[in-house]
Amino acid sequence: MKNIIVILAISTLIFSCGEEFLTEEPNFFYAPESIFKNEQSAETVLRGIYITPFELETTGGVQHYQFIDASALDATRHQSLTNSWSEGRWGAGDGDLNRMWNLHYSTITRANSFLEGMALATFSEEIQNQFIAEARALRGNSYFELLKSFGGVPLVLDTKIENTSQPRASAEAVYNQALEDMTWGLNYLPPFSEQLAGRLSSGAVNGLLARVYLYDGDFANARAHAQAVISSGEHSLIQDVAKVFTADHDNMSEWMFDQGALGAFGSTYQAMIMTFPNSLNNQPMMENPSLLYGGGFRIFTVSEYLINLMDQNLDGRYIHWTWNTYVNPLTGKVTALQGGSGTFMKKFYDFNPEAQGSPGNYRLNRIDWPYLRYSDVLLMFAEAENEVNGPTVAAFDALNEVRNRAGLDDITTTELPDPDTFRKEIQDERARELFGEAGLRRYDLIRWGLYMDRVYEVNPGNSEHVETDMLFPIPSGQFDINPNLVQNPGY
Amino acid sequence: MENISTISNLKLRVSYGQTGSQAINAYNALSQAGGPAGWKLTSVDGRNPTTALYQTAMGNQDLKWETTTQTDIGIDLGLFENRLNITADYYYKKTSDLLFNKRYPNIADNDNQIIENVGSMENEGIDLNISAVISDRNGFRWDAMVNFSWVRNEILDLGTDANGAEVPFLVLSPVNERAGVKDENSFWRITQVGKPLGAFYVPIFDGIVSTEEQRANHPYFVSDAGSAVYKDVNGDGRINQNDRVIYGQAAPDFVGGITNNFSYKGIDLNIFFDYSIGNKVMNMTNYVLTRGGGQYNITKEYYDSYWREDVNTASAKYPRADRSILLSSHYVEDGSFLRLRNVTLGYTLPESVLESLNIRKLRLYATASNLLMITKYSGMSPDVNVDITNNLGQGLDYSAYPASRLVMLGINITL
């Protein structure tokens, strides 16, 4: 694709060196007056906020979510021989933490620039409000991700250069900002349609808000937003569990928000390679996509704890979302993968010679990176409903919708007679359904207060986790450029 | 003076001037917007490629040339009918409006960098050049030239930050977008007021805790035996970015060269040595190849001698395989060298022989470059500069291709 460089002269822009600021104008953005005048060019800049994950280095900016998920141990595991995230061995110098920090601040910076530029927009107010709602929701969500990982972080809300080296705001202030940003334009966002092509719908933001409220233990609001998604009728589960993670289903309404993959270098290929069973490395090169990257890396596995939570005969998520047999797509040869070096996640495996064309493209994963799926919303609803009203019919319905799709029968009040047993079931069900996605497991365990117990239960005697691990360290390089930062305790 | 017979030439030179450095790329003053390049995708959903725009460069309207003001005092001295010539120069340069890619926090696009005129620095130095005709008798001529340079560099100020406070130092990474080293470890250069430009800024390597006992007794918490440990400089019981110290610099104390020309009858011989003393090199090639961790290639020496449980624990030369090993003083090496840069041996045939061939001049010669290097540096060559576009790129050996050894044979014919 051709690199489009647009260079625009600016007369109003005054930048830097301490003397004079035209504080009314964006400090370091390009020709706002020309670019925001019409809807099409403003929309181009809006899309620029969405694509931050793909601007970050070779692994794709989404890779770090896999590390985060694995830091919880009971769903997926990180098996590096050295600085294993599953043994609590991450440090302030970890490049993945720095990528995470930069990914979210890129989103925030681009949103800030966009929001300032939109003050100059002259097109339809309805569209303007939709655009602003999207930009603010993305900014809010990035602040929420930063909050979960690091605690309070600098709250940068404009493009003034003197505001960049702020000290960390309180966790509460960051949380409130996330909430305010995401709530602001809920009414301006369109309903879900495949034509939205990855942009935020009202349903997606409602779902993300349920996630934010749940994290704070605000079950009433979490329930309300999850309920809004369900009653909109816009979303449904893909009925065939085997097809949920395939390139031609990831635009459907179950995939409420995701990071698009074009099947190009820099998309989600890493996720495939890192979860591809290395015992398959003896398959011929052209029939094993991972070999085009030097073989399965055997870095992320599905935890034994989770495998034992799944019905291995009936649960379609065990059967289709983890590796238990490998059917060579070209020769039909079947390799059994039971036992041995661990079970691997199959959610991001995409090998389709017909669609991908030449062997050189086999490695190019076309499956989007899931950030919010409808099954997550159903489980969030069930959880919040149980906390507010107890295990009601509505709570069971939501839970059973997820179970049924996986090929499991209804679960009833016989098995889960009270809120406590229902809560426990939801906690396990979220691992079965959402393992390896968007770093969810870590934050689930933390908000349930289960994190410390679980990591020691799952990894007895071999875990180096301490209480302070519930926050990641601020990446060490950030201290060099912002002397006002203070490190989290324990690092 | 006229009466001093030994002096055949004496000149005093004084000069003063200002020059501008235009090391500013086109459009650097402007903010720029761009789309994702090359293989990166431009659509949000990955299916329907559309254009996306975002800021690719943050402009700086106040950008101007670096200005260097230089004063030079020199003396040219010729003695004994110019058989001995000495040229000595002292200079003082002050460079203001230094161009730096200054990093700002929390504007992660563009690696947080904005090009700015920041502060000033001074350089002073001495250049000395001595050439002599040592012998010119009986057809044997021997000329020798020795030159020598000394330079001192100091940052005078680094301007103010966005809030108007004096900036005491900048920590900068000279390596951009290089796989494997672009993590936090790569910020290992400091530019500090009162110190030379781009000094190395690293934690001090303090050996390996080889046994479980050593691990347990180590002053700060070490998770595994076999780990590399570092000096806890500020004594807070942990190793982090606050334990980095200034550890040498890439700029040498002295550089120079020695040339000898001999000729006797038709034979001529030229031998040229150059040297550099006191420069340090960051051996990042070694760092990347001796970390283990399964992600990069390793050297055979590393494979044979890294720390393993129950295998060569006490004698391990390298710590346990650990991707998180820090880029420390361990990789900063003395890069002093003496190099035989060039040797040329030639033979010009006497005219008497050539006359019959109708050739005016014929010279046969053999020349060899980079024949010999005497250095303690463990890498391929200490004379490296991976990132020559960046004045902070000096002294970095990261898969640098060394100057090749070259031998040439030649004939010069003048008809």
Short description:
Chain A is mainly alpha-helical. Chain A has helices at 32-35, 39-50, 63-70, 95-117, 125-150, 171-184, 202-215, 219-232, 269-274, 304-309, 316-321, 353-356, 374-389, 393-405, 419-434, 440-447, 451-458, 477-481, and strands at residues 5-7, 76-78, 255-259, 300-302, 325-327, 334-336, 343-344, 369-373.
Q: Would you list the SSEs of chain A in sequence order as H and E?
A: EHHHEHHHHHEHEHHEEEHEHHHHHH
Strand content of chain A: 5-15%
In this structure, how is the largest beta sheet of chain A organized? 3 strands, antiparallel
Strand content of the residues of chain B, in percent?
Answer: 35-45%
Low-pLDDT residue spans of chain B: 38-42, 174-185
Helix percent of chain A reads: 40-55%
Task: Determine the most extensive contact between two protein chains.
Answer: A-B, 87 and 72 residues
| Beta strands of chain A, count | 8
Intertermini distance of chain B: 48 Å
Order of strands, main sheet of chain A, comes to 2-4-7
Mean pLDDT score of chain B: 82
Radius of gyration of chain A: 23 Å
Structural class by helix and strand composition of chain B: mainly beta
Give the helix proportion of chain B (percent range).
under 10%
The whole-number mean of residue pLDDT values of chain A reads: 83
